[in-house]
Amino acid sequence: MPGLYFDELTVGQVFQHPIRRTITETDNVWFSAITHNPARLHLDEEYCRTETEYGQRLVNSCFTLALMVGISVGDTTLGTAVANLGWDDVRFPKPLFHGDTIRIETEVVELRESKSRPNQGIVTFVHRAFNQRDELVAHCRRSGLQKKKPVAA
User: Fold this and answer.
1) How far apart are CA 130 and CA 64, in angstroms?
2) For 129, which of 35, 105, 107, 151 is 20 to 30 Å away at the CA?
3) pTM value?
4) pLDDT in tens, 16-27
């Protein structure tokens, strides 16, 4: 199991996730379509070229958020997460475009024991996404309920 248990995490621990992802037009159009998001900023190249400051379509920010968290799972919570408790302070300081490649880093910023679940704890991560120019394109705080390491019998 690649994920870490609650008691294997430490505040200040930073993960540089090895998976990188180049975002394609298909990714963006498909994600926008399956989530019923018809925003012209994601789908209408001509509109974006002639009527926006970007000159091209933007990657759907919900897709960026999903990738940012998804890429982190293998190194942090795969097989050890009980539940995602929420996202806070979700920000997109720069847009992503088709052809951009993102990399993700995750920092453990808080750990606390669960008061009602003695075999679990609450972990707060900060996820950060960077494009190929090392510009911060997204970040969020994510809290989750995480299993503790099983006690050997």
Assistant:
1) 11
2) 35
3) 0.93
4) 999 999 999 999
